[in-house]
Design a protein that fits this description.
single chain; alpha/beta; Rossmann fold; 2 domains; seven-stranded mixed sheet; four-stranded antiparallel sheet; globular; binds S-adenosylmethionine
Length: 378
């Protein structure tokens, strides 16, 4: 059984998206869909799925210690002692308040090396005033499990990653999703499944990445690019070149400059004064849709407000022409527009080495497509 958590909170959008791919899902809880995945064909990109729980089984336990013992037995029986694994325990009941990642945290994401790509981003299950109703129980279960592992399986405990990390083919993932204090779903995905499913699976509980906040950024939109990088598992790097379409007031340009990239920013309106004066930023006043780069760049980032058809066409054009090695583009949607993403799903894959399509936590009324463009013609 494959469980999918809906990015929209309710079932209907994701149910429709699955139906358009010929997949029939049942509701397992509000915002949680269950389906039997097709055997041979890989799962499609699902813009409205936030997290997948492969091989999920319904389980119940009456107490914290019973949950921990049940987890211990399952983990021991399914995971090898010598390989890295990640553990996500989250509650799917009660009220979830918005999580934010502070400026210091996200700047630390920008400065660490490749092996620390997710450092600084705290998981939503962290305790504190914003924690959801079941988060405390999840913390207790996790701590009880760690105690048992310390006693009985130190080698396995050593392999447990302490921070969310991009999945490598060696990583396994254990997810416990509580639907009430004593009931839930357990998913154990031995390596290399989490890496193979990474389009639908991120190393954050419930697929929720805390929204970055930074008062120095020109707009809150900067958080979308930070989150897209985290989901992609790849960041804009120092010395890279970047075209930012629909750049004003400059949140995405600001992120790219924080990373040490040079930016060519296109908009009809200027960016914030400090970015306009920045020698690492070239501003072009003009139309995002007719702009063509003089030479290929490392990144296309684009956050233009436009009809979804136009943004889809822009993505396909840049990928076909191989004008950028990587791209991050938001596609603004209203209710009922999701079918307009189907063209992207059909026509984009031949041009991409790897690509993702999702609703970001930083903005729920648009989809975001990102990935790396194939370097040679399909
Ligand atoms: C959501 S804002 C971008 C926010 C920006 N990413 C940030 O982080 O600050 C959308 C921008 O797209 C620009 N825009 C809309 N249509 C455009 C077009 N055809 N050509 C250039 N810019 C356009 C608007 O002027 C606006 O500044």
């Amino acid at each position: 059984m494959l469980l999918l958590l809906s990015a929209a909170g309710d079932d209907s959008g994701l149910t429709d998206e699955l139906l358009r791919h010929g997949l029939n899902a049942q509701s397992a809880a509000p915002g949680l869909l269950a389906l039997e995945p097709p055997d041979a064909t890989p799962l499609p990109a699902l813009a409205l799925a936030r997290q997948a729980l492969p091989g999920a089984q319904a389980i119940s336990a009456p107490s914290i210690n019973a949950w921990a013992r049940l987890l211990l037995d399952s983990v021991i029986s399914r995971l090898p002692d010598e390989q890295p694994w990640q553990l996500q325990i989250a509650a799917h009941y009660g009220v979830q308040k918005e999580q934010r990642m502070g400026a210091r945290a996200w700047h630390s994401v920008t400065r660490h090396g490749d092996d620390a790509r997710f450092q600084g981003a705290s998981a939503p299950s962290a305790s504190g005033p914003d924690a959801d109703a079941g988060a405390h129980r999840c913390d207790l279960i996790r701590n009880a499990l760690l105690e048992l592992l310390k006693d009985k399986r130190r080698r396995l405990l050593k392999q447990l990653r302490s921070e969310p990390e991009p999945f490598t083919p060696a990583d396994s993932l254990v997810q416990l999703l509580l639907t009430s204090p004593d009931q839930g779903w357990l998913s154990i995905a031995p390596a290399p499944e989490p890496h193979a499913l990474r389009r639908l699976l991120v190393p954050f509980p419930k697929g929720e990445i805390p929204v970055a906040s930074d008062k120095a950024a020109p707009s809150r939109a900067f958080a979308k690019l930070v989150e897209a990088e985290l989901r992609f598992g790849r960041r804009i790097a120092p010395g890279e070149t970047c075209v930012d379409l629909g750049a004003s007031p400059g949140g995405w340009t600001y992120v790219a400059r924080q990373r040490g990239a040079r930016v060519l920013a296109v908009d009809r309106s200027p960016l914030r004064d400090d970015l306009m004066a920045d020698p690492g930023v070239t501003f072009v006043r003009g139309d995002a849709f007719s702009y063509e780069p003089a030479q290929p760049v490392d990144w296309l980032v684009c956050d233009v407000i436009a009809a979804p058809e136009r943004s889809v066409e822009l993505v396909l054009r840049w990928a076909r022409q191989r004008w950028a090695r990587n791209l991050v583009v938001t596609i603004k949607l209203r209710g009922g527009d999701h079918a307009k993403l189907d063209r992207l799903k059909q026509e984009l894959p031949p041009f991409m080495d790897e690509w993702f399509l999702t609703h970001l936590c930083a903005n729920k009324h648009e989809a975001c497509v990102f990935g790396s463009v194939r370097s040679s013609a399909p």
